[in-house]
Specification:
Strand content: over 45%
Number of helices: 2
Number of strands: 32
Helix content: under 10%
Radius of gyration: 26 Å
Length: about 525
């Protein structure tokens, strides 16, 4: 958190410079680092600690930022764990953010930032002789050049590397097992911002991504024989160009219109799992094109109220497929192919926004509807078979997501805070699942409530509270368990026909802020 400068959530009306996903956008920007003064701050807690350092490399011209944190709750509990049958069991996560900022001239700046995060779980049972480890996490690096052409235009050129990997290592006695999966991306972007006049803001850009997707690669050994499933990485490319214009037609009406065009291709080397057909490195296995219009409109009735509407079409070519019957965080990323079509989402949204009491209160009501095509799920008879070609286990269907969001916020006074409530429904329909009947998606949450309040007790004391409530997540229940020839048979009910209990939580805080001394310059 100490490395983040700003976070923007775009729920609907996604702009044309964003693509590759059907959902909303979380746009996170990092702090640039102080180029005038050195500073060091951190925190120590029972569960985790954090430390952030920043300062100038060349005063006024360049800066650095380093921010890190780590959890250690089970590290502190190790003396007690070592006395049990679970000696050697531990869990922790850590992450590291860095950023360098260089100003070469009044028109050129260079930024280099990295993120590395890892969850590490190790489990051991001396009583049963079982052990396993779950290391997984993300790494990313970004190099960005910002060039200012003049007072009306500037260009950002970025090279981005992303790496997600998941691993599982386990064994018992002479038997051991290893699984690995992940996705790597090389991403090149150019974004030109141009301001031809006071009423227009134009943005043009291109984006090229090289995907390397690693499926579930497994290795198992019993001490004498070793087995591997021999799955090979999948390769794909994604290229997009876009143009958008934010036009202030009048003080009352503004339009934000954009168009994004995308070309996606899966290419070799690749061997078709069913037919055995082989593709060389330069061969195209499957390719798709898509046109994605984006439109946002705001009509301001007066200084206190406005109406907003949006239309968004998006396509997703790389898919996250989750297995609800597995307890491992091993979600698989798969590429669009001949069998797996790109997912498509079309969203309509409209809302009324009004401020009261000289902008002391904000309120809004929004309605949305999203139509989803080419949704992916596992067939009903799917079993966790790491030797099977996953594409043959998928079925495809459609989905819907719609609802209403209500929001109220108080900005000033001793009592500040906000209340949000969402009434929504998300479902899926597959010909091969649930006899073709619609069923709740795993993301379906009928009711969602968030309340955040802060009350000032004076210049140094603040009382705060946070309350959240959410409907229970849908799941597929096991209705019958029995044995046939000593083999366990499980019979399930209808897909996602049961729900976990509703979730609610209340947090209270009392915060004391001592007097702040004068800032010292250690440079």
């Amino acid at each position: 958190p100490d490395a983040i400068k700003n976070t923007t959530l775009i729920k609907g009306g996604m702009q044309a410079n964003f693509g590759g996903r059907l959902s909303s956008v979380i746009d996170i920007s990092m702090k640039e680092g102080n180029n005038r003064h050195y500073s060091l701050k951190g925190g120590i807690g029972w569960i985790a600690s954090r430390l952030t350092a920043e300062g100038p490399l060349a005063k006024g011209k360049s800066s650095f930022l380093v921010s890190a944190r780590r959890t250690y709750l089970l590290d502190l509990a190790q003396p007690f764990i070592q006395e049990t049958n679970f000696a050697g069991t531990n869990y922790f996560f850590y992450d590291l953010n860095t950023k360098l900022n260089f100003r070469f001239s009044d028109k050129d700046r260079l930024f280099f930032s990295t993120y590395f995060g890892r969850d590490v779980l190790s489990f051991k049972s001396s009583e049963r002789g079982v052990s396993f480890g779950l290391p997984y996490g993300n790494a990313t690096a970004t190099l960005r050049w910002n060039h200012l052409f003049g007072p009306r235009s500037f260009l950002n050129t970025s090279l981005i590397y992303n790496d997600y990997d998941f691993g599982f290592e386990g064994g018992q006695g002479e038997w051991d097992f290893n699984l690995s999966s992940g996705v790597k991306d090389w991403n090149f972007k150019m974004d030109l911002d141009y301001f031809p006049g006071t009423s227009h803001e134009v943005k043009l850009g291109l984006n090229a991504i090289y995907h390397t997707l690693t499926p579930n690669v497994t290795r198992a050994s019993n001490g004498e024989t070793t087995f591997t499933n021999g799955f090979e990485p999948r390769y794909a490319g994604e290229f997009a160009i876009y143009a958008q214009d934010q036009w202030e037609i009048s003080p009352a009406i503004s339009i934000h219109a954009g168009l994004r065009m995308v070309y996606f291709a899966q290419f070799g080397p690749f061997t078709e799992g069913v037919t055995g057909e082989k593709y060389d490195q330069s061969d195209i296995v499957a390719d798709y094109t898509a046109v994605e219009p984006r439109f946002n409109m705001r009509w301001r009735f007066n200084e206190n109220s406005s109406f907003k509407a949006s239309f968004t079409r998006a396509n997703q070519f790389v898919h996250l497929v989750s297995n609800s019957s597995s307890t491992l965080p091993g979600d698989i990323w798969v590429s669009s192919s001949r069998r797996v079509k790109p997912q498509q989402g079309t969203q309509y949204a409209a809302g009324y926004f009004r401020n009261f009491a000289n902008n002391n209160w904000e309120s809004s009501v929004e309605l949305y509807y999203r139509d989803l095509k080419n949704q992916i799920d596992y067939r009903e008879t799917y079993q966790n078979d790491l030797t099977a070609e996953l594409e043959q286990e998928f079925v495809f269907g459609s989905g819907r997501a719609y609802g209403a969001e209500f929001f109220m916020k108080k900005n000033r006074g001793d009592l500040t805070g906000w209340l949000g409530y969402t009434l929504s429904k998300t479902d899926r329909q597959f010909e091969d699942i649930n006899q073709g009947q619609r069923f709740p998606a795993r993301y379906d949450r009928r009711h969602d409530v968030s309340l955040v309040l802060n009350y000032s007790l004076g210049s140094k004391w603040d009382l705060g509270t946070t309350f959240v409530f959410g409907s229970g997540q849908a799941f597929t229940p096991v209705e019958r368990l029995y044995f046939i020839d000593r083999n366990l048979v499980q019979e399930y009910g209808e897909r996602n026909s049961a729900r976990l209990n509703d979730y609610h939580r209340l947090d209270l805080s009392l915060i004391y802020t001592p007097g702040v001394g004068k800032e010292k310059d250690f440079s």
